[in-house]
Design goal:
The protein contains 11 helices and 12 strands. With 370 residues, the chain is α+β, with helices and mostly antiparallel strands.
């Protein structure tokens, strides 16, 4: 075991200026101890702040500031330990490290993609996303507010502009870090092989998302029913849409499913809908009286629309009774279940008041003696 710690560390043919023992004693152990100390201090600070009389928002802000300073200190300590480990040859190995990073991984024409290119691409993607998000907020709060168009069209315009700005910033950023835009087609051709093998669903959802944004079969705020799931469309993204169900569950539905499957949109152009209340009455009932009572209930419905007369109909002569149906148009699909419940309660109360019998399911059994 002692021979291992005395052995010089080497990577390939390159021999590093320290042994495995130096690596553990001068780097691993100090870094682990300092990191553990950092975690303990942060836990103590968090507990003290939660017990203090400082407001929650101020406490969180103070905690984040302290954590930032400690992380900077931890990074400085880490770099210092690396310097101690490599000694005076640190600059030689840094040069060697950057030489490896600059080694091309992929070449196409005048474009050479290395580790450095990939590292620089990360802030480019982040900046493109951040600028696109800021531009959408600016458009929503200033320009689109002045246009006399509905919210659905505003959402479509801002979403398309957001993704358009993201693509433009992304292309400019990639050209700045040295990627020739003319060679991007070659890269996409290589990626096309991956699409053919395993990314069909990703691409299908992406284009389905664009189709939804442009053609607007559904929009944010719509009440829809898809695959037996009813809820409100909370957010539409390029890959999937988020639906909040009636039981406050969040369902993430792939956009391709919203395009290929049958979708009931209860608020496509008009948020008002008809609700249907079905009830049976006894065969001994006066149907004219029943229709009059149902019409009166529909007219008094607080969720209904003034001026639109409800519809009461005799719809079936069933085994146990006569089926009656009341159709009432309400203001908003969101109120549908409240309106149905209110109407059912009023039917029950008014039928009791007017002595209209609601029959129980019944079966007559005739037994013959032989």
């Amino acid at each position: 075991m002692s021979h291992f710690f005395l052995r010089t560390v080497s990577i390939g043919k390159e021999v590093l200026p320290f042994t495995w023992g130096d690596f553990f004693l001068k780097f691993i152990i100090p870094v682990v101890l300092v990191f553990s100390f950092f975690r303990i201090i942060m836990l103590i600070v968090k507990r003290r702040l939660s017990r203090s009389k400082v407001r929650e928002r101020q406490g969180n802000r103070l905690f984040r500031t302290i954590r930032l300073f400690f992380r900077i200190g931890l990074a400085v300590f880490f770099v210092t330990m690396v310097g101690v480990l490599f000694g005076e040859r640190i600059f030689y190995y840094l040069g060697l490290f950057f030489k490896i990073l600059k080694t091309p991984l992929f070449s196409s024409g005048s474009t050479q993609i290395s580790f450095v290119t990939l590292i620089l691409a990360i802030p480019v993607f982040y900046a493109a996303s951040w600028i696109a998000r800021l531009s959408r907020k600016f458009l929503d709060k200033s320009l689109l507010k002045k246009l006399h168009i509905d919210d659905a069209k505003k959402f479509t315009i801002s979403s398309i502009l957001r993704y358009g700005i993201m693509v433009v910033v992304l292309l400019i950023g990639l050209s700045i870090i040295g990627i020739d835009l003319s060679s991007i087609t070659v890269i996409f051709g290589v990626l096309g092989l991956g699409v053919g093998f395993g990314l069909q669903s990703v691409v299908a959802n992406f284009f389905a998302g664009l189709t939804i944004l442009i053609t607007r079969p559904i929009k944010e705020g719509d009440r829809i029913l898809v695959e037996g799931i009813e809820g409100e469309v909370v957010k539409i993204r390029l890959q999937a849409s988020i639906i909040n169900t009636l039981t406050n569950e969040t369902i993430i539905v792939p956009n391709s499913q919203l395009i290929s499957e049958k979708v009931y949109n209860f608020s496509y152009e008009d948020r008002s809908v008809y609700i249907k209340n079905v009830v049976q009455v006894s065969y001994r009932s006066d149907l004219d009286k029943v229709l009059e009572v149902l019409m009166d209930i529909g007219i008094k419905n607080p969720f209904g629309i003034d001026g639109i007369v409800p519809i009461a109909r005799v719809t079936e002569f069933a085994d146990s009774g006569i089926t009656m149906t009341l159709f009432t148009k309400i203001q908003d699909v969101v109120l549908k279940y409240d309106a149905i419940s209110w109407t059912n309660i009023e039917i029950w109360r008014n039928f009791k008041k007017h002595k209209i019998e609601i029959p129980f399911p019944q079966v007559d059994l005739h037994i013959k003696n032989r």
